[in-house]
């Protein structure tokens, strides 16, 4: 699919995600900030688990409410809340540091309760007959933004101005930048209210396939949640004795591989989506296997790139399958329900990941490997049945 063939509103939405992509470095800096200011990997895992508890029922309730409300206003709320959270992180210093960190994480978690609105918005604004093709562009552009910005920011924060004080300034800058992204959302993205969500005639809810989707979501949630970003950061910075710059290099290598993955996914023949998902899961499993062996840094770069290539390769087909199973007029509710379901499954995963990593830095990847293999096996069986 050429860029010129994508509808204008869909382009505006993709460019919004490209605009916010550099700010995702906060997801690396925040756990690293906690670790460098005295928290252990086990305590960081417990911290993230504690904040997860309140988000489960509220995620579904917000999603159900947005069946009637304008989804664009929910996207604006996400950026406002993230901006507040990042500023609180930046101000977390001295005697009130722990209070502000927890408050900031709570505010950020409130914004994540609205994240299912991204999927609902995509389901409605993207052309239904072009889901697989358009998601290649949806993934490609933000990854290009990360490739261009992460090495610069990583080098500055890792070698020029290293340490927690610089991280705090980065939090504040990205928090204030949310004013720009909120303005972009307000000016350039169309509203999506109740009238814009009409399920096509002939749509039938397929309960059996939806149960398979839920099973896959459970396996995938456990695979990623048991080897989260904090495990990589702990291994690279505290076991391999590197800096945040090397962590961003892993992200850049992953982004480059993801860009290649978007082009590879476009070459998969129609009707072979389930096979593509199974193959991508196999690549994810291989990444987890190598990481479990405590590799040197250059191999970490390679296997994380391979894993993200696999994820990008299977993602468009999985997302297209998901969207075809969900009625548009209840898109926000369904996506929020799936998100709450994932949170229930992964509720203690950050604590377990932290506990495993405290025993051995790469032990969480062993458990991640098992769940990737199970997820891939499921789609192998589905593909054989379809054949």
UniProtKB/TrEMBL annotation:
Taxonomic superkingdom: Archaea
TM segment ranges: 12-34, 41-63, 83-103, 167-189, 210-238, 244-264, 276-293, 299-321, 341-359, 365-382
One GO MF term: transmembrane transporter activity
UniProt keyword Lyase present: no
Protein name: MFS transporter
Cleavable signal peptide: none
This protein's UniProt keywords: Membrane, Transmembrane, Transmembrane helix
Keyword Membrane: yes
Family annotation (Pfam families): MFS_1
